[in-house]
Design brief:
single chain, alpha+beta
Length: 154
């Protein structure tokens, strides 16, 4: 029953889900880099405010734990995917379903990849799949907010 419902909603979302040329180019450009992150994690953004303020004052993230080098496709987290857009030395606070992260780019180096046209079909699939997940998560969150659920215990 749940699988049927998800399939139904997926068909409904299909008319909104496509990969634009600019999204494909951005994804491809991100694939052409390997990045070393420095990362701090907390359950809430407020837990990262102090370290972020210290970073903004002295631009030092050398003591933060290191992750990488990793490629764009190696990161299942939307927080790390968003951080790929930053340049070396930049830091920002990002969130995903698992928590909040203060992420800095310690190094970014070129990686050899196939030509865009060879990767285009797979890139399009991945962009659309990410949009499907986001669209469904947003829809579900709105339904939860609109619901009036009460537990009556005897």
């Amino acid at each position: 029953l749940i699988r049927d419902f998800v399939d139904y909603k997926k068909k409904e979302f299909d008319r909104y889900l496509f990969a634009s040329q600019s999204e494909i180019k951005k994804y491809y450009d991100n694939l052409s880099y390997k990045v070393i992150f420095r990362v701090l994690a907390a359950p809430e953004p407020s837990g990262l405010e102090g370290p972020y303020k210290a970073y903004k004052e002295n631009k030092d993230f050398s003591t933060w734990p290191e992750v990488g080098p990793v490629g764009y496709d190696d990161m299942p987290s939307s927080a790390f995917s968003a951080a790929f857009d930053m340049q070396v030395g930049e830091a920002g606070i990002f969130s995903d379903q698992n928590g909040c992260y203060l992420i800095a780019i310690a190094d970014k180096s070129k990686a050899e990849i196939e030509p865009l046209e060879a990767l285009r079909p797979e890139i399009e699939k991945r962009i659309i799949a990410a949009k499907e997940r986001k669209f469904f998560e947003d829809w579900l969150e709105n339904k939860r907010k609109d619901s009036d659920i009460r537990i009556i215990s005897k």
